[in-house]
Amino acid sequence: MPFAVYMLAFLAVMALLVFAAVVVGVPQGWLAIGLAVLVVLAVVVGAQRVRRATPRRRS
After folding, report:
1. Most buried in the list 7, 9, 10, 54, measured by CB within 10 Å?
2. Average pLDDT in the 23-38 region?
3. Is 57 helix (H, G, I), strand (E, B) or coil?
């Protein structure tokens, strides 16, 4: 799966999680911290999956 598609899907999941947290009443400070952690996690996991899926060239 290309990195951009992976990130868009992850952003959609994060948006739903933030919406649910707002409805439940989680303070904004915790939402910001949680969202920052999820963004970093998405970039790291996405980069690993894309790198693993990319075939290596032989020299």
Report:
1. 10
2. 92
3. coil
